Amino acid sequence: MKIASLTKIMTAIVAIEHGRLDELVTVSNRAAGKEGSSLYLRAGEKMTLRNLLYGLMLRSGNDAAVAIAEHVGGSVEGFAYLMNKKAEELGLANSHFVNPHGLDQPGHYMSANDLARLSAYALRNPEFKRIVSTRVKRAPNPFEDWDYKWVNKNKMLSMYEGADGVKTGYTKQASRTLVSSATRNGQQLAAVTLNDGNDWEDHRRLLDYGFRHFPLQEVIRAGEPVPGTAFAAGRTFRYPFAAGERENMAFRVQLVRPDSIDARLGYRGQLQFVFGGRMVGAVPLIPPNQPSVH
What we know:
The structure is a single chain. The protein is an alpha+beta fold and 294 residues long. The protein folds into 2 domains: 4-154, DD-peptidase/beta-lactamase superfamily (Beta-lactamase, 3-Layer(aba) Sandwich); 217-286, Spermidine Synthase, Chain: A, domain 2 (Roll), CATH 2.30.140.30. Helices cover 32% and strands 25% of the residues. It has helices at 7-18, 29-32, 49-59, 62-73, 76-89, 112-122, 126-132, 156-159, 199-213, 261-264, and strands at 24-26, 46-48, 136-139, 148-151, 163-171, 175-184, 187-193, 216-220, 232-233, 237-240, 250-255, 269-275, 278-286. Strand 12 and strand 13 form a beta hairpin.
């Protein structure tokens, strides 16, 4: 479906991974003149890539999106290529990008599931996580005596306990789109809706449902002996099981060669956790009484 400014989740993570955040970006005529939501940047204005990313994610600046794309990708088209390569790398088979801002254009779309997977990936990046959880950001304005002040459009940050991201969106064709995230008791969940006129309330319900029905449960604790081996778990592993799912978790042990570098460093292998036919996590195997890995 059309996703509007949820596109900027991909724009931000690609820019963070490919760009230098403290580098100055020069705003082009094409960027300054971009229609839709805007930071009101001027042609020739210089701003750090980091500050542009704050403007992109908090105020959904389409001018920032184009400036970022031209700086990091060489052109809007070159940046769209990087976006599609990232989608391919993450296995997002129902996604395709034509631009960095999400204005309606043929061939520009994602599925809700792809958006959830992309958001889960992006939220593991400390810079991305810090940006999308920020409620207010100030940045230097070279043309005025006052700084830019950007207030995050994501109302979930103030209306839902533990909310910490992610992005709002709207175009006439896409209607209201939203990805939100929240963390409670060490567990972070993301919710996605597309074409939803009641998204704030629906996200409150979705996140409540997730925390209630998929609580994190401890599978193994750091230092706990691993059955069938002479080793212990090097790290605690927890997983969000629904009711009755825990018994379906399977375990796999992969040992390293005794003469390997890993073995010399104190690792003996890996305990892998398999659920629903795929590996969902792993912890290192270490000798008993050795300090756990953090």
